[in-house]
Amino acid sequence: MPDANYTYRAIRFRLHPGTKAKRRAMLGLAGACRYVWNFYVGMMRDEYAAYGKCDFRFNSLSKRFAAYRKTAYAPWLRECSFAIVRASLKPIKTAYKNFFRDPAHCGLPRFHGKFMKEPSFPVFPDAARLKGDRLRVAKIGWMKLSRKGGNPYAECELLAKSRATKASVKIRNARADWAHKESRWVADRYDIAVLESLIIRSMTKSAKGTAEEPGRNVAAESGLNRGILASVWGRLEQNLSYKVARLEKIDPRNTSRECSECGHTDKANRKSQSLFACGNCGHSANADTNAALNILGRRECGSVPPKGGAGRGGSSGSSVRNMGGTRFADFAT
User: What DSSP letter does each residue of 38-54 carry, written as one string?
Assistant: First the structure.
C-alpha cells in the first residue's frame, strides 16, 4: 500500500523507434508481455480456486514460462526477448503477497486488457543498454529516448543504476566462482565434509524487527547479516552436497566456546573474533580453527561432548578448514 508520508514522483520517457519495423517489434513485445501476464494470472486464479493455494513464486513461474515457450501453442513468443517477457511476471508474486497479507484491501492480480492499458514492457540492464539518449532493447535494436518532463538528472540516474546493477552482478558471479573452486578443492581431496547445522535464513533475517518488536543494535546486526551473506555459506554448502561423497552436519552449539584440547566450555574462552584461549588448560589457537576441530571431534564421537570432557583431535585422514567464515572438517575414507 502507498505510504502517505512519502511523495511518489514518476519520470516518464518517450521511445522513438525510428522505423515501422521497430515500432511493430515494440508493440509485439508489449503484446507478448500482456499475453503471458494474463495467461499466468488466469492459471494462478484457477489453482487458487481449486486448491486454496498456488505457486506464485517468480522462479516457479519462470520455469513454467520457459517450458510453455518451447511448445507449439505460442511459437511467436520465441520472436520476443525471453528475459523481458519473463520479467513481466515478477509483479504477480508481489500482488499475491499483498493479497495474503491484507486481503481486505488488496485483491488478486487483475487481467490486462489490450485497449484498457497502455502498451508496455519492463526494461532492465540485462536486456537493455543505455548510451546517452539512446536505449537498446534486446531483439529490437537502438531507439532514441526523450524525457517527458520530470527530473532533468533522470538520465544520469538511470545510467548510475545500470552501472550499479552490473557491478552487483559481477560481485555475485565472483562469489559463486569462489564457492565452486573451494568446494572442488575439498572434493578432490576428501570424501566426507562435516559442517555446522546452521539456519542461515534465520541468522540473516531483518535486524530492524517490527513495529511491535523493534530490533536492537540494528547497525551492528545489519553489518553481521551482510557479512554472512557475502560469505556465501549456503552456496558453498550446496556445492559440497553434490561434489563430495557425503555431507554431514553437527550441532553448532558452543563450537566457538569449547576447547578442542580439554573440552572446557566457557564464554570467556573466546577472547576476540579471531583468538581462542582456554581458561582451563591454556590452549590457544585461531578461533575458527578451534571450532573446526570441535566439529571434527563431534562427528567422530557422534554426539555433543559433555562440558569438561576429554580432548579430541583429527585423525590422520582428516583436516580442518576455514573458508570465508564457514568452518568444517574434511575426511578421506
Answer: HHHHHHHHHHHHHHS--
